[in-house]
């Protein structure tokens, strides 16, 4: 845009009745869970607070969160009582109240809102569409009309039980407000955010290119975050699937190496989960509770907890044998899942010799009196499902959400190339960055990571 540097940011006041989600909208658009205070108690926002939507170093939109209009009925009566018998427009009535604000101590909060209205280019009017259409809302809209600014009604909580967006649209249309947008600040949708910006374009035509640049930048940011998150999850899967370390015949050494493996895998998953949270602008506190909670980047149900199998509908026996046949765990399978250590060792030993032709190096290790410690396939499946669930939940989570993420129970289909990926990783222990023999990635590893990341992206759309 040639004259971009000459255009100031579009000033938008976020207004509405108390507890309609004004601060929540600010958090979602700013991608900032720490902006303001979100509470179920009315009148939480007591002052005008601002934030900017930036492209590069240029502020495109300046947003201003305002206190709730707590007594619109009395405020409108006072405004209409000014200049009796005179033909005075709404702006003059608003300015008259501001000039004599000390005479109206009961309207201190409303005066802050009015002052911001008159300093703005456009207004977002937040509506909790679970609420019935009451007279106080019509009075608020009348007050806003006095400011002679374009108004975009934003229907919030449209995904909640009891929402009535159609009724609100009808009533707003009767008042001549047709630029209505459904935008849930808790259940995020980029398309909803995009429609909000497009309404600005339609009402402020001279700022069309300025807003379009913001839309394009936001879409690019989302794609970059999504791509980086999918790659992080794919790297985790490869690192864990390829992990392998030798252990001697002694039970104590085997147990010690198994514990080392579990510790490294837990740490890797926690680091990946923390990375995903950071990429989407969340913190560990956003996942403190739920059916499969994550706290501080760490899942509260341990990856090696046998209850995970039922949680995801995974059958350990069949999955373990498939994993072994793919070169998975020739000696140590579960390391503490539903199979006991002795059962796991016995099952693995049973497939050791049947897979001998294909896995000669691993058999050679066995003949030297050593065993291979790695992660079994059921655990890898759990890891796959948990990463998918977390990424899907983050894509759909608005920054105004105050309830922890609830991640679903149940199984999901594994990708068609699962066994191929698993076989590659099992045969290349040097691919694991958490393993002892890690070397710089080779082309096949990069290809595998890219394939897994692509499937993750397509399955979380």
Task: Write up what this structure looks like.
- This protein is of the alpha/beta class and 461 residues long.
- It has two domains: 4-203, Rossmann fold, CATH 3.40.50.300; 229-459, no CATH class.
- Helix content is 48%, strand content 11%.
- It contains 16 helices and ten strands.
- The chain has helices spanning 22-30, 72-81, 90-99, 108-118, 135-146, 165-174, 190-203, 208-242, 251-279, 307-312, 316-325, 341-352, 360-367, 377-395, 418-426, 443-459, and strands spanning 10-16, 49-55, 58-65, 122-128, 151-156, 181-182, 245-248, 294-295, 298-299, 370-373.
- The strands form three sheets. It has a six-stranded mixed beta sheet with strand order 2-3-1-4-5-6, sandwiched between helices. A two-stranded antiparallel sheet has the order 7-10. A two-stranded antiparallel ribbon has the order 8-9.
- Helix 7 runs antiparallel to helix 8.
- The protein starts with 9 loop residues before the first strand and ends with a helix.
Notable characteristics:
single chain; 461 residues; alpha/beta; Rossmann fold; six-stranded mixed β-sheet; two-stranded antiparallel sheet; elongated
Strand-pairing-aware structural class: alpha/beta
Helical residue percent band: 40-55%
Could you report the average pLDDT, rounded to the nearest whole number? 78
The ordered H/E elements are EHEEHHHEHEHEHHEHEEHHHHEHHH
Please, how many domains?
2
Low-confidence segments, given as residue ranges, are: 36-46, 288-298, 318-360, 362-367
How many angstroms does the end-to-end distance come to? 32 Å
Described by the principal axes of the CA atoms, the overall outline is elongated
Radius of gyration: 29 Å
Main sheet makeup? 6 strands, mixed
Task: Order the strands across the largest sheet as they lie in space.
Answer: 2-3-1-4-5-6
The helix count comes to: 16
């Amino acid at each position: 845009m040639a004259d971009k540097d000459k255009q100031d940011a579009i000033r938008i006041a976020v207004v509405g009745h108390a507890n309609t989600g004004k601060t929540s909208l600010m958090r979602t658009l700013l991608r900032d869970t720490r902006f303001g205070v979100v509470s179920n108690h009315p009148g939480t926002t007591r002052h005008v607070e601002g934030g900017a939507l930036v492209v590069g170093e240029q502020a495109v939109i300046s947003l201003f969160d305002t206190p709730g209009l707590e007594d619109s009925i009395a405020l409108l009566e006072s405004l209409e009582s000014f200049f009796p018998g005179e033909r005075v427009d709404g702006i003059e009535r608003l300015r008259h109240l501001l000039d004599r604000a000390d005479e109206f101590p009961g309207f201190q909060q409303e005066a802050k809102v009015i002052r911001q209205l008159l300093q703005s280019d456009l207004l977002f009017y937040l509506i909790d569409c679970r609420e019935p259409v009451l007279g106080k809302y019509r009075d608020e809209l009348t007050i806003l009309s006095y400011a002679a600014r374009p108004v975009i009604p934003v229907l919030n909580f449209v995904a909640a039980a009891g929402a009535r967006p159609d009724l609100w649209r009808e009533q707003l249309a009767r008042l001549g407000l047709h630029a209505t947008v459904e935008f849930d600040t808790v259940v995020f949708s980029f398309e909803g955010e995009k429609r909000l910006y497009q309404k600005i374009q339609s009402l402020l035509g001279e700022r069309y290119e300025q807003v379009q640049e913001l839309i394009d930048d936001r879409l690019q940011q989302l794609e970059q975050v999504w791509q980086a998150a999918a790659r992080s999850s794919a790297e985790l899967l490869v690192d864990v699937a390829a992990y392998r370390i030798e252990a001697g015949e002694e039970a104590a050494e085997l147990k010690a190496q198994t514990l080392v493996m579990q510790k490294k895998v837990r740490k890797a998953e926690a680091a990946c989960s923390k990375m995903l949270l950071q990429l989407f602008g969340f913190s560990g506190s956003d996942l403190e509770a739920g059916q499969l909670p994550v706290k501080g980047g760490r899942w509260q149900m341990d990856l090696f907890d046998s209850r995970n199998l039922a949680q995801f509908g995974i059958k350990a026996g069949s999955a373990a044998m498939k994993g072994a046949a793919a070169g998975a765990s020739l000696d140590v399978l579960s390391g503490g899942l539903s199979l006991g250590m002795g059962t796991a060792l016995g099952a693995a030993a049973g497939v050791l010799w049947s897979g001998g032709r294909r896995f000669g190096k691993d058999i050679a290790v066995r003949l030297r009196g050593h065993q291979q410690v790695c992660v079994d396939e059921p655990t890898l499946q759990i890891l796959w499902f948990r990463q998918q669930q977390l990424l899907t939940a983050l894509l759909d989570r608005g920054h105004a959400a105050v309830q922890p993420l609830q991640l679903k129970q149940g199984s999901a289909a594994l990708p068609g190339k699962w066994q191929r990926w698993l076989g590659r990783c099992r045969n290349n222990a040097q691919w694991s960055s958490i393993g002892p023999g890690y070397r710089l990635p080779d082309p096949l590893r990069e290809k595998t990571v890219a394939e897994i990341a692509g499937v993750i992206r397509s399955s979380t759309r």
